[in-house]
Design goal:
The protein is of the alpha/beta class. It has helices spanning 14-22, 60-70, 85-94, 108-116, 130-145, 170-181, 197-202, 240-258, 268-273; strands spanning 4-9, 28-30, 33-35, 44-47, 50-55, 74-78, 99-101, 122-124, 154-161, 192-194, 214-222, 229-237, 265-266. The strands form three sheets. Strands 2-1-6-7-8-13 form a six-stranded parallel β-sheet, with helices on both faces. It is globular, with a radius of gyration of 20 Å. It starts with a strand and ends with a helix.
Length: 274
């Protein structure tokens, strides 16, 4: 099997580094370059015997030409920063690099439109954990088939992530759309976001060793007369679940590239089905 040339962008970010640990060298050929932010001081990141060059925004257009000459048919993984989502997508489109967008935030409509107007396919999802995506699919099914099921109920959404996560959880935001269809009056601005380590450890009881990498979510629904309560919880410690899902997304995207898909934005639901 021909190896997949894989460019992991967002190094030295935690998720990007975690993905490095999960790569099968028999399947992937790591591109020794990574898009990174303007504030990153390092020029290289060393991983095992490889020296990965960190490409800053002001030099990446020039450097990518050399990379694309050396590595043909690159697929990129993006775990950068919410503020970089749309500009990075434009970069991938410009250089015809199919990508898996794991970074949350940005203008998601513009992101999808950029792909649909391009010559490349991409996988775009607010969450790359397959099991959570499956849970979301179940909620979407309920929303579409049982509208107003929870009409008259109140909703509370609480999410906790590591302090370095800048934006509100994309998964929590996606869940709001399903709950609205189920009859709940709720806006994404009402999501309660926790980033304080002391509160996370002492009140949420998140293990100390996972304060720097976790995703805890709780959705509570209470009837108007307080006689019924429903709760949905998914607590993830560490980043392995996202790395595994992202790699599956890359394998799926590689298949779609070979099938000559262009201008198509796939989701993790497509990955699960595929």
């Amino acid at each position: 099997m021909e190896k997949i040339n894989l460019m992991i962008n967002g190094i030295p970010g935690n998720v990007a580094k975690n993905i490095l640990e999960h790569l099968d060298p028999d399947v992937f050929n790591l591109v020794e370059a990574s898009l990174t932010g303007p504030d990153v001081k390092e020029d290289f990141f060393e991983f095992k015997n490889k020296k990965i060059k960190l490409l800053k925004p002001d030099s990446r257009d020039e450097k990518i030409k050399e990379i694309l000459e050396k590595f043909k048919n690159i697929i990129a993984i993006d775990y950068t920063h919410p503020t970089a989502v749309n500009e990075n997508a434009k970069f991938y489109v410009k250089h015809k690099i199919p990508f898996v967008m794991g970074t949350t935030g940005g203008n998601r409509e513009e992101l999808v439109k950029a792909v649909e107007k391009s010559e490349i396919p991409a996988v775009i999802a607010p969450n790359m954990a397959k099991q959570i995506v499956g849970f979301q699919a179940m909620m979407e099914f309920a929303a579409n088939n049982f509208p107003d099921l929870f009409k008259g109920y109140s909703l509370e959404i609480k999410e906790s992530h590591q302090s370095g996560k800048a934006d509100t959880s994309g998964t929590a935001k996606a869940m709001v759309t399903y709950f609205k269809k189920l009859g709940l009056n709720f806006d994404t601005e009402e999501i309660k976001k926790e980033r304080n380590k002391d509160i996370q450890e002492n009140e949420w009881k998140i293990p100390k060793e996972h304060l720097e990498g976790h995703a805890w979510h709780k959705y509570s629904l209470v009837s108007d007369d307080k006689s019924a309560k429903f709760e949905f919880i998914h607590n993830i410690n560490g980043r392995d679940i996202y790395s595994r899902g992202t790699i599956d997304a890359v394998l799926f995207l590689n298949k779609k590239i070979k099938e000559n898909f262009k201008g198509k934005a796939f989701t993790m639901i497509d990955v699960l089905k595929g």
